DNA sequence: CTGCAATGTGCACACTGTATACATCCACGA
DNA sequence: TCGTGGATGTATACAGTGTGCACATTGCAG
């Protein structure tokens, strides 16, 4: 039901603005999102955006929500790609590793979207529907529960373990995008990420 | 040798600007640092700052360097406060734990300075002297070497282990300051930080 | 066809960083 | 003592930003 007729009224400015903002953020980073910049990309007057968003912040938050959805899909895709011929124990830890690698690789392949996804943690602009994919945080909880059920992680270790995982993974991404790992090649960064994830998994599953 | 005479010439505007910027950053965050805002706080014309800094970015980077020094001092203080009656093995892991806790608590007590310290990783504005305390990164390297020497960490594990540590610690701070741990009480945040550091240390030192 | 609600435009305002020209002050040499 | 010149702060101006308000244009409901 898209009105593609290009009249005085744009037809679906809202979607066009979001898409233009995503393009801009991917190329120039989330910080480059400006109201005039985005509307200019669409070829429309700056104030036209105010018919669809309360202010710049609302626009950015909406775009950020979309970015978080893409991150979530990227993670889920990677989780589904795990070879299914594994025992539940090995499989669950592989899923944790895949989660971390997907997170880091999303950050390093599209840093602007990663920045947006991080910024999306504030409440959505209005009572927006929650129809998207499960948020990354919930995916992680599921993986940890799976590890506990499979017996690779002691139940006592499960409590609040998500924050240990989230810290490692988010820290890796942050160092890669904004920190001292910026200059590294993609392969080197992935190698360090694997190392950190190995250490994390060992820490979660070690006996002592 | 401070000229405190308040004439037409300020006397030591550069230091005053840096101090005002630090105050502003502590109260309103590093993002609130504006050229006009800082000069206004000192009570001076906006362009006066250009006599001491090339542009806003140079000012912020200088202030950021000072913030990183404070972070480093905060870490060193905490390291020195460790009870010296410990064996080298136990002592080295306690030092790693103290490093992480100091980092996270610095971030949660002065988020604006923490943001600045992170931003200081770009090159200093000009060929500024390196006279300050050792940068946090080097402190961490020393602790890990100490752990290896003490035998609590296998030498093979030492390689690139700093990035695993840095990820965990920086991730914790980031979640605390900008992420979903914002709403937590200080004690709760520290508890989660201890948990994550336990997992990290276990991962670094576990046998298997 | 008429009016109305939705949507996009134009203009204005306060704010930002910064360039350029000017004013003021201090130190030093005759 | 008197300049005089370099250092330092000011004044003005300009492009850029987000945003409020009035107006123009469009499509739809009656």
In short:
Two copies of one chain form a homodimer. With 208 residues, the first copy, chain A, is mainly α.
Biggest interface pair, counts: A-B, 33 and 33 residues
Decide which structural class fits the backbone of chain A: mainly alpha
Give the percentage of residues in beta strands of chain A. under 5%
Mean pLDDT of chain A: 93
Radius of gyration of chain A: 20 Å
Shape verdict of chain A: elongated
Give the proportion of residues in helices of chain A: 55-70%
- Assembly type of the chains comes to homodimer
Q: What's the total number of strands of chain A?
A: 0
Flag low-confidence runs of chain A: 1-6
**String of helices and strands of chain A:** HHHHHHHHH
State the helix count of chain A: 9
Cα separation of the termini of chain A: 60 Å
Largest sheet of chain A: none
What does the model show?
The structure is a homodimer of 208-residue chains. Chain A is mainly α and 208 residues long. Helix content of chain A is 65%, strand content 0%. Chain A is built from nine helices and no strands. The first copy, chain A, has helices at residues 13-28, 35-42, 56-80, 88-109, 111-119, 136-150, 155-158, 161-177, 186-205. In chain A, helix 1 (13-28) packs across helix 3 and helix 3 (56-80) packs antiparallel against helix 4. Chain A is elongated and about 65 Å long. The A-B interface holds A 118, 121, 137, 157, 160-161, 163-164, 166-172, 174-175, 178-181, 192, 195-196, 198-204, 206, 208 and B 118, 121, 137, 157, 160-161, 163-164, 166-172, 174-175, 178-181, 192, 195-196, 198-204, 206, 208. The structure holds a DNA duplex (30 and 30 nucleotides).
């Amino acid at each position: 039901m898209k009105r593609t007729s290009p009249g005085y009224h744009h037809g679906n400015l809202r979607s066009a603005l979001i898409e233009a903002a995503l393009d801009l953020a991917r190329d120039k980073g989330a910080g480059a999102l400006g109201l005039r910049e985005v509307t200019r990309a669409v070829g429309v007057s700056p104030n036209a955006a105010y018919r669809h968003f309360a202010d710049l912040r609302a626009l950015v938050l909406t775009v950020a929500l979309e970015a978080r959805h893409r991150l979530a899909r990227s993670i889920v895709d990677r989780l589904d790609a795990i070879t299914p011929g594994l025992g539940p124990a090995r499989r669950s830890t592989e899923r944790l590793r895949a989660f971390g690698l997907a997170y880091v690789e999303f950050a390093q392949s599209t840093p602007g979207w990663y920045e947006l996804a991080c910024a999306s943690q504030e409440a959505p602009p209005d009572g927006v529907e929650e129809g998207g994919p499960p948020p990354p945080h919930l995916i992680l909880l599921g993986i940890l529960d799976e590890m506990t059920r499979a017996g690779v992680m002691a139940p006592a270790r499960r409590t609040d373990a998500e924050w240990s995982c989230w810290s490692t993974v988010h820290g890796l991404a942050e160092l890669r995008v904004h920190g001292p790992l910026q200059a590294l090649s993609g392969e080197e960064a992935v190698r360090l990420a694997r190392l950190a994830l190995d250490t994390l998994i060992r820490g979660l599953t070690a006996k002592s």
